[in-house]
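User: Sequence recovery, please. Input:
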């Protein structure tokens, strides 16, 4: 595919996944920053990663972002315990019928034995290239079991989980964590050393504490010096990355090997294509096609639940509208996919008005 050829999947959703789009274009400004990277024996065609986001990065969004160039995607966090019970719902959540690769399933849990058994089950299903361990989730329900970011308060247990999972699977094992539990207990450097010594084959660090949740500004200064600890192990920076200048600054300050993007691509999945050097997605007609494609794919993945689940993406697409707050209010209970598609068409054509706008 040349840089400006229209991707076939936009008109025909049955078009097979084309990995060539994930290769960064040779002639582009970020060529020293956006490049392939290897995790264990898995080659990522580029180092732009779609962050795991529960309730957001379903199979449709993972495939969409891969099609738009993300070099790697990660599932929403999945309960290791539920997987060992062979929960249909959990396994379906991490397995999508047309999953693009490379792809990681992310597991959470605090019991090394359960984590190892769940990882082995996922590995046997052959649905992913990498297993990622969640050590950053701030949600009370998760941390009260000792999982997620609570593991940052228990480095020996985190290390044991990594060792046991690595011993149980053939695929590489990675860890995603934060800079610490609270502002007074920032331990990101020691923690990075611990998980790498235990065998983590890549790390991703969200530059916030558990205490900060998703608020405030990511504290990139705490990512400085991490690469020196990692040696050859790839280090992915995460937190508030939404534009080329963020990659440039993080690269300069931290020498990181890759960039994980979360909220910055919700309602803007073409961000990956732009960072790879593609310019065609500045077209609002193409952006509308992407919007419509996503909703239709979600209807196939989720059935009647698709429109409510799409809402977070819809509000992402609409976020720069001058009356976005009124639109959110007007659309927050909308369940009719035709209304949502018409709203998107009007928005991208510049014709979207709100009846209460003035
Ligand atoms: C709605 C939502 C759900 C999330 N779910 C997960 C998750 O399942 N696993 C995980 O490791 N991180 C999760 N995160 C954290 C993101 O992966 C990422 O670390 C965080 O949003 C910071 O990146 P950003 O500033 O680019 O969004 C979630 C974040 C959001 C906003």
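Assistant: Recovered sequence (358 residues):
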């Amino acid at each position: 595919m040349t840089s400006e050829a229209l991707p076939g999947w936009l008109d025909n959703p049955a078009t097979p996944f084309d990995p060539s789009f994930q290769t960064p274009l040779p002639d582009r400004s970020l060529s020293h920053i956006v490049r392939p990277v290897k995790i264990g024996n898995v080659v990522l065609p580029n180092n732009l990663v779609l962050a795991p986001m529960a309730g957001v990065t379903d199979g449709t969004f993972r495939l969409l972002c891969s099609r738009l160039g993300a070099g790697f995607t990660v599932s929403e966090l999945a309960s290791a315990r539920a997987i060992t019970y062979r929960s249909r719902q959990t396994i379906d959540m991490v397995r999508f019928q047309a999953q693009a690769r490379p792809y990681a399933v992310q597991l959470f849990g605090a019991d090394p034995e359960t984590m190892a058994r769940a990882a082995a089950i996922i590995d046997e299903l052959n649905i992913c290239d990498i297993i990622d361990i969640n050590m950053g989730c701030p949600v009370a329900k998760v941390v009260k079991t000792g999982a997620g970011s609570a593991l940052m308060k228990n480095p020996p247990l985190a290390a044991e989980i990594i060792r046991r999972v690595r011993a149980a699977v053939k695929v590489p094992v990675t860890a995603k964590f934060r800079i610490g539990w609270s502002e007074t207990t920032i331990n990101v450097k020691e923690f990075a050393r611990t998980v790498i010594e235990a065998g983590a084959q890549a790390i991703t660090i969200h530059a916030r504490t558990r205490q900060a949740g998703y608020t405030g500004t990511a504290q990139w200064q705490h990512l400085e010096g991490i690469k020196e600890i990692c040696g050859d192990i790839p280090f992915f920076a995460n937190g508030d990355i939404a534009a080329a200048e963020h990659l440039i600054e993080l690269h300069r300050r931290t020498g990181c090997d890759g960039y994980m993007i979360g909220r910055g691509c919700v309602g803007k999945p073409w961000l990956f294509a732009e960072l790879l050097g593609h310019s065609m997605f500045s077209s609002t007609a193409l952006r509308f096609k992407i919007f419509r494609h996503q909703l239709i794919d979600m209807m196939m993945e989720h059935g009647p639940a698709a429109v409510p689940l799409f809402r977070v993406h819809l509000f992402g697409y609409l976020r720069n509208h001058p009356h976005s707050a009124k639109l959110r209010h007007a659309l927050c209970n909308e369940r009719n996919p035709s209304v949502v598609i018409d709203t998107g068409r009007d928005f991208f054509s510049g014709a979207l008005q709100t009846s209460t706008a003035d």
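Residues 24-276 form a domain with the TIM Barrel fold (CATH 3.20.20.70).
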